[in-house]
Design a protein that fits this description.
This protein is of the alpha/beta class. It has 13 helices and six strands. The protein has a six-stranded mixed β-sheet. Helix 8 links the parallel strand 4 and strand 5. The longest helix has 25 residues.
């Protein structure tokens, strides 16, 4: 429950001057993970060249996505194709083919897999894909979002700005924008008794999981609840590549939907056979075929895109239209 930094009136004026209709995401969570991996002292020397090759492949992937000129669903499909090409390279040529076992065994801690999705998803938040966003002010990408406000002041020991404090939560993917809170005991908001905080509202947030299992689910339920208590109009999704638990209905939860991008995770007794590089080498072709036959599915990504289209395409209700159709 950390407090966001206070900002001054000068900061506000400066930010308003620079405000653009679209604030593109400049964060590169996957690239950052690759750079961190390259400097990891535990990385086997033999794997360093592979990581460097992956960074070169990453740059090709970004260039490929930047070069897509189609619109609508066709652009989504083209983006997904580039995503699958790059993911296959990382999963097979970087991790699976490693002569050591470090990358395979530590892939969960290194977060190479789900960080690819974190860097891919902002590409979908594009007026060429979601026309309603054209001309709108928004920010997208991984962000620390507003999760609630509280006050720490007391009657006999009043604090500046009534002790306004902010709860926040890191989200893998968001679409939102910044807002500002100002608190004071004085209606004129004098500087000596005013706290002004910059916050970030997530109109939509998503958690990216490579493997979704039952131990993760309670925490995700809590995150969704906190997000919607703080901002009831928001939407919360879980995007997982592989499902590793029995499906659970989200109807009575604050999770809007769990979208399974690839399929069911391989059973643990099968995965245990891949622990050693010598065993992975024998099963390389069959495993690569398994991955290629279970790519990130276009229709599942399009489903998520359509959720965003429906959310951001919603307009203010007009009484005449509501009366004409008979419901709202």
């Amino acid at each position: 429950m950390e407090e966001l930094n206070s900002i001054t009136e000068e900061d506000l004026k400066s930010e308003e001057k620079d405000l653009l209709p679209v604030q593109p995401d400049s964060r590169t969570p996957h690239y950052d993970k690759l750079q961190k991996l390259l400097s990891n002292q535990k990385l086997p020397q033999a794997d360093k060249e592979s990581v460097q090759n992956t960074i070169a492949k990453y740059r090709e992937w970004i260039k490929s996505m930047d070069g897509i000129t189609s619109e609508g669903d066709e652009k989504v499909k083209a983006l997904v194709n580039t995503l699958n090409d790059y993911k296959t390279f990382v999963e097979v040529e970087l991790i699976w083919d490693s002569e050591a076992d470090f990358l395979y065994r530590q892939r969960g801690q290194l977060k190479l897999d789900n960080s690819i999705l974190e860097e891919f998803l902002p590409r979908l938040v594009d007026p060429a894909i979601i026309p309603a966003l054209k001309g709108q002010i928004y920010i997208t990408g991984p962000r620390t979002t507003f999760a609630g406000a509280y006050f720490t002041t007391t009657l006999t020991a009043p604090q500046k700005g009534a002790g306004l404090q902010i709860r926040k939560k890191n989200q893998d993917f968001t679409v939102g924008r910044t807002a500002y809170l100002k608190s004071s005991f004085d209606e004129k908001f004098p500087a000596n008794d005013t706290v002004t905080l910059k916050i970030y509202f997530a109109f939509l947030a998503a958690e990216c999981k490579t493997n979704l299992d039952s131990t993760m689910f309670p925490g995700l339920l809590g995150t969704a609840r906190d997000l919607k208590m703080a901002f009831p109009g928001s939407r919360y999704y879980i995007l997982c590549e592989w499902l590793d638990m029995p499906p659970i209905s989200t109807a009575d939860t604050n999770i809007d939907e769990v979208i399974i991008l690839r399929g069911k995770r391989l059973a643990s007794d099968v995965r245990n056979k891949f622990a050693k590089s010598s065993d992975r080498k024998k099963q390389r072709n069959s495993h690569r075929e398994f991955l290629l036959s279970n790519p990130i599915r276009e229709d599942r990504v399009l489903r998520f895109v359509n959720h965003m289209r429906n959310l951001f395409g919603a307009t203010v209700l007009q009484e005449d239209e509501v009366l004409a159709r008979g419901y709202f």
